[in-house]
Amino acid sequence: HIAGDMHLGKAKGGEAFVSVGGNGENESDPAREGEIMYYDDEGAVCRSLNWRDGTRTQVNDDTKNAVIVIESVNAEQAARAKEAMSKLSELIKKYFNVETTADYTLTKDNPAVQR
């Protein structure tokens, strides 16, 4: 679950995090100071940009809502990311009969989504 608002920013260091497929089940691996991460009111959601997902927010059989992150670092990648999100929305509808309801783009000038 996402607690409060989700943000993209630099870690202060020590934000709570347990990685999916980490060194051990439920082994704490807090964020490092200055690391770029997605975070909410309870800690890191995913670290190393979008590379390391956390167990607290992982998708499972009980998931009702999900946040899917696709990253880009330049205009060409941004165009491909937008295409990928569109295609992913189509596939989610086709295979799970679920409509996607929101599409946000986070940038350094827009680092947070308010629910």
TrEMBL record:
<dbReference type="GO" id="GO:0004826">
    <property type="term" value="F:phenylalanine-tRNA ligase activity"/>
</dbReference>
<protein>
    <recommendedName>
        <fullName>B3/B4 tRNA-binding domain-containing protein</fullName>
    </recommendedName>
</protein>
<dbReference type="GO" id="GO:0003723">
    <property type="term" value="F:RNA binding"/>
</dbReference>
<dbReference type="InterPro" id="IPR005146">
    <property type="entry name" value="B3/B4_tRNA-bd"/>
</dbReference>
<dbReference type="Pfam" id="PF03483">
    <property type="entry name" value="B3_4"/>
</dbReference>
<feature type="domain" description="B3/B4 tRNA-binding">
    <location>
        <begin position="2"/>
        <end position="96"/>
    </location>
</feature>
<dbReference type="InterPro" id="IPR020825">
    <property type="entry name" value="Phe-tRNA_synthase-like_B3/B4"/>
</dbReference>
